[in-house]
Amino acid sequence: MKMRDIPTGRLVLALGLLAASLSVQAEPLRVVSSFSILNDMVKEIGGDKVMASSIVPVNGDAHSFEPRPSDAKTLANAQLLVINGLQFETWLPRLQQAAGYTGAQVVATDGITPLAFEGGQGAHADHADDKDHDHEHSHDHEHSHDHQHAHASQEEPAQGAHAHSHEHGSQDPHAWQSLGLAQIYVRNISKGLEQADPANAEYYQGRAKDYAQRLQELDDSIKTRLQAVPVENRKVITSHDAFSYMGKAYNIRFIPLVGVSSQAEPSARDIAQIIQQARSEKIKAIFVENTVSAKLVEQVARETGAKVGGTLYSDALGAAGSGVDTYLGMMRSNTDQLIQALQP
Ligand SMILES: [Zn+2]
Fold first, then answer.
1. Higher pLDDT residue, 264 or 208?
2. DSSP one-letter string for 164-211
3. Residue 182 Cα, ligand 1 centroid: separation in angstroms?
């Protein structure tokens, strides 16, 4: 029987069924992550069973991010959304609403005990002129900050330390900067993938286990390598307060020029204080970040004689092929830069 002898309706039906059965087997799970670091973790764990994409692009600043209409389209089409949580993605509720996304969601920091945001280790404290700045503190940290300019909450003794217009709560969201905590991210993401796509659960579990092991190996090797750097040398200035988790893991003091969000503008007094601190503590290195303008860093470097140690990757991966286009590559690169700048 030739094709043209088959009644058209039946042929269309047969092709439709064939396509449907193929797509059940072959179509990867559509996973959207809020930013590039999570996106890389999803790719590592999901392998070829997922089609992963990121809303905030590589080298993008998640703090100042403004979603585009195309992001709403991407999210509307997702089967799973992976976010950091700890109020990192302040723009997300609006995007979810625009996309009408009510699907499954993984909060990668679930189960992590967050560090309190302490601000610039004294550098930002003691603002007499706090009222001139925008405050966006919320009393209710469970909810996203829809209301801007809420009043400062009373429970925060460190209030003056994180003044300015950052959009975060009192918890530091940058937990991925610890390779130990990143293993909790991996567990949460794997669980989310397993639930969204049970047919491939074992595949995800196997890859998650392998990936977590590679994270642990890098963590161990960083600890070994850092032994070459005396503890008293382990202090650096960075652009924004993104490295507290790394600092805690490896006993390095990171002194940020601005607060937990890259959006804050330090006052002239903040800068003067940091310059003074850098001189008195003989801080050797000051780092540019890939997501924050280098202007301020260069100014402080000029005035203190500290050398610009290079670029640290804080809140986003680098471009494809840069060597810092994976989370592991980024953590390796940050360590290389720090050791090079701090070793005697
Ligand atoms: Zn940040």
1. 208
2. TT----SB---GGGSHHHHHHHHHHHHHHHHHH-GGGHHHHHHHHHHH
3. 16
Give residue 339's region: left, alpha or beta (phi > 0; psi -120 to 50). alpha
Q: How many A from CA of 168 to the centre of ligand 1?
A: 10
pLDDT in tens, 225-246: 999 999 999 999 998 899 999 9
The model carries a pTM of 0.79
- CA of residue 19 to ligand 1 center, whole Å: 44
pLDDT tens sequence across 136-179: 333 333 333 333 333 333 333 333 333 333 445 689 999 999 99
Q: Distance (Å, rounded) from C-alpha 60 to C-alpha 67? A: 12
Quote the pLDDT of residue 265.
77
Position 312 confidence tier, pLDDT thresholds 50, 70, 90? very high
Sheet harboring 29-35: ordered strands across? 50-56, 29-35, 80-83, 104-107
User: 1 CA distance to ligand 1 centroid (A)?
Assistant: 66
Beta-bridge partner residues of 312 = 289
Whole-number Å distance, alpha carbon 315 to ligand 1 midpoint, is: 5
In the structure encoding, which two tokens stand for residue 296, read together? 């301020």
Question: Do the bridges between strand 235-238 and strand 50-56 make them parallel or antiparallel, or are there none, so unpaired?
Answer: unpaired
Residue 287, SS3 per DSSP: strand
Question: What DSSP string describes 106-172?
Answer: EETTTT--PPBP--STTTT---TTGGGS-----S-TTS---SSSPPPPTT-TTGGGG-TT----SB-
297 alpha carbon to ligand 1 midpoint, in Å? Answer: 16
Residue 92 zone, left/alpha/beta (φ > 0; ψ -120 to 50; rest):
alpha
How far apart are the CA of 235 and the centre of ligand 1, in A?
19
116 Cα to the center of ligand 1, angstroms? 14
